[in-house]
């Protein structure tokens, strides 16, 4: 008898300990919000709306919108509770809340890489069509289509996310390269050789742990990871060629190095770049904020330009990254939440606030000419006042991206296998690596049918 | 699971003097109903169950229910409002290269941490227990403090120490010995090293405390007797100390194996969920990546069930080998 008791005890014990693993995990990440702020708590009878985000900066937009709203509509005030959680925790909490149908916020930010997770099953998000459709003519189509499914727009976009090349003017001058002469990627490589030869500084850096060096190029070349029907086309000819281009920059022409720290958001990288570690860098425009916050020594030295062109193509940029803000079905005040969200991010004031407070290029093209956007601010101070001219020049050709439920798998494959073996180790050819990744994702797609 | 070497049958048996009639009613005219309830709760048969209720309830609600739910989910495709059963599909997909890689990493990690976290703490505790060492409390405290920190916080610091630039602390130290800077987070051997170092740094002190407690139970007479027989320090350690530490050792090994298999944070702090070439992916990290990040809870649950079976089988084998199931009087 005692033997069996011990046996049962052992079973219970191992179950208990396995279960504890799950608990520790969430407490390890911190159960509390990183930052939490409330607007309008002193207004009597205000309707409470909660907003979750993963990026503390985004709270600014909603806080200022709530203040404006309460002045403009004193008869239906809002009490806004905004909370920031760490990236992973935020999306996981939100996904669990949607899965279980309770405990979610009224309004939430969802990062583009995670957005497709929320478009499966019975969609727990409210369509924003009534606010988006009237503005269709002035919104950049590719930036609203990526948050839509079956004709419903679920996410309100945050910015254009146009990819640009940031050149360090000082290094380029030292090398005797005229930035304006760089028209195509071939010119870019030639200029890179001159930079390396004259200054000894690499022309650019390539990410090995993330996908921001690869995806924009893929998108600019007119390809993507999925076609418009959602078919996986990861290893198509264009994508292989593009990855080969990156590998050649590192190993053939030797004008690029792998990004210190593995990706362009690492502490090591900020330090490297700030010390003039590379002559240029390709990242979307939202990376401007990183320059201002982490690379103060480069102020006045960096120049933004549209991406060099691929041969035979006019695409000057690629829309990358982004955040779709959504209203959840579980909200108690769906209509108010939708109206407030549109007020905060789609209205003219909201769009202007996105630029003034966060330096984001609003997706509403009709506000780009407004005088408020031409006023001096820290972004003009850092980069110069040509920003809007450049944006207008590029905007006709913003290529979009196609998101599917398997986008997250592609990103995981790129991060953990493809970029590592092709760029860092050079242990596989681009074709092999992409084929292998494609097979692994296809296996999952077939199983998931 | 732990058994003291004494015969515990006799200790458990309480003298049964007033069986059944435990508390005679002091107030015969009082509320009979309440009386009966109290008497029922107080009776020797019921009282133990009353005391263990909190554990049973929390076990049923927080452990058994989720476990059963996980079993069901592992046969489902879980989507909001559209969950449906898909048979063995999730299990068929488990045995893929990434899972094997994760299992391999986890197994190596378990073996390394178990060996290090048993051998070193025993040695440390013996040293700290000897009369020769000064400032014992200081050493004890400083070895224990790491376990109070959060893995996430400590891991972030470790990540900076083991940065791949020439200026990172670890690369400067090995530079003193004339070694080339290492890209710590990108080699498979150094990835394992990083995880093991973080884990050992954190748990060393706790395991040492277990062994220190175990050392207090060894009768001093045995050492005296051994000395009279002419045993040297190592012989005393091997023939007296180690056998007495066996129950603690079994306990520590069991805990370390189970903790090792469910390791997650140590890998997460270095690479989050996708490490280059999966050199840092662990089984639980894989569950997290697939189940939560990629919204495939059914598949995640299936990996979880497989992991639980693995832990269960290994624990049973280990307990059988160390004789934990043997009756103490056999």
UniProtKB/TrEMBL annotation, chain A:
PROSITE patterns: PROKAR_LIPOPROTEIN. CDD domains: PBP2_TMBP_like (cd13585). Keywords: Cell membrane, Lipoprotein, Membrane, Palmitate, Signal. Residues 1-19 form the signal peptide. Residues 427-449 are annotated as: Disordered. Pfam families: SBP_bac_1. This is Arabinosaccharide transport system substrate-binding protein.
Automatic annotation (TrEMBL), chain B:
The chain crosses the membrane at residues 46-68, 108-129, 141-162, 189-213, 244-264, 297-321. Keywords: Cell membrane, Membrane, Transmembrane, Transmembrane helix, Transport. GO terms for biological process: transmembrane transport. The keyword Mitochondrion does not apply. GO terms for cellular component: plasma membrane. It is found in: Cell membrane. PROSITE patterns: ABC_TM1. Residues 103-318 form the ABC transmembrane type-1 domain. Residues 1-34 are annotated as: Disordered. It is a multi-pass membrane protein. Its main location: membrane. Pfam families: BPD_transp_1. Residues 15-24 have a biased composition (Polar residues). Coiled coil: none annotated. The keyword Cell membrane applies. Belongs to the binding-protein-dependent transport system permease family. PANTHER family: ARABINOOLIGOSACCHARIDES TRANSPORT SYSTEM PERMEASE PROTEIN ARAP, BLL4140 PROTEIN. This is Arabinosaccharide transport system permease protein. It comes from Sediminibacillus halophilus.
